[in-house]
Amino acid sequence: MRVLVIGSGGREHAICYAFSRSPRVSKIFCANGNAGIAEIAECVAIRPDDVAALADFAVANAIELTFVGGEIPLALGVVDEFESRGLRIIGPSRDAARLESSKAFAKDFMSRHGVPTAKYVAAHSPDFAILELESGDFGDTSNPVVVKADGLAAGKGVVVAQDRAEAIAAINGMADAVGTAATEKIVIEECLSGKEISLLMFADGQNFALMPPTRDHKRISDGDTGPNTGGMGTITDASLLSESDTAAIVDQIVRPTLHGCAKEGFPFRGVLFLGLMMTASGPQVLEYNVRFGDPETQSILVRLETDLADICDAILSGGLANGTINWRPGSSACVVLASAGYPGKVRTADVINGLEEAAAIPEVKVFHAGTARNDTGQLITAGGRVLGVTAVGPDLAFALDHVYSGANKISFEGMQYRRDIGRT
Asked: 110-137 burial by CB neighbour count: b if 16+ within 10 A, else e?
């Protein structure tokens, strides 16, 4: 099987790694890849948002399966384009991708199908959003609220405002922070309290198969302080959700969501990501993502034992209910090593040292996110999130011990990472 993976980050490196372990896969291409991906796949100089060029490449190179990593090509309709040409591709249609590409659409969808979520309002302008805040519908002015950009914002379009002054500042500054396209609407939500968990699943339009529950750490600094990022680390561990929690999520969220997608004419096929808050009154959806998360993918796929190519076949044939997906028992962790300045303006082109020493530690795998090679062949930084050091083991303590041993072997100028992943 000849496989194409679309994307260039740590998530896509982990997906390529999973395909590389399949005896069915003879060749992996990645558009457009990075320096780490280049070690296991042929990188192709096509941007992930160039939908027509990606489809042309798949036809010309007899690609038998394409896997979409990120949200932008999905929102642009890459799946629709590939399917119109008879090409096999994993991911939701453009209509289904609206669950992520529009926060307002997703909230309205949840409302229509009885999926538990926070009280909200979608505002068509900053002025209207401020009026909604001042209406009293979200409680006292000292109550925290959540301000979200409606459109795609690379995980940075959410502000948890501790009071109205902070909320108004977030509304007025949102367009500058994430761009005007993402802020054509602004969603205001009540702020939920509880334990935040991510639960991902494979879906074939009707059936689903859950992945190990994960917990993401979004803020840049220890103690969950500082600005939000695309994600600074994740863990997987069975203790994150009890059996009763999982049953409630399936009954109240998973099944209504998949049924709602089918009812509205866009059956969901691919990877569905539920961002959840486990509140005192039960699970509530914070957000949908319509693809693997980053860095959740890294910590999830190191535990996957079933052939990813077989899973993809089951998704495309509607056969997920006919088999079992096996996961390595235990836990895993991923710690992101980021460039100086991230999540703001970052410095790049710094030489990276210590990768071989880190990879030599048992159960440690280093996934590349923002890396490249300089003119002399040295590995250098080429983005905000540079590497995802990942470890798997029989329990969380083992995984965390090994992942931090790996992180401590690596160095580059200005490197920053959190020391409390899985411990807060």
From this structure: beebebbbbebbbbeebebbbebbeeee
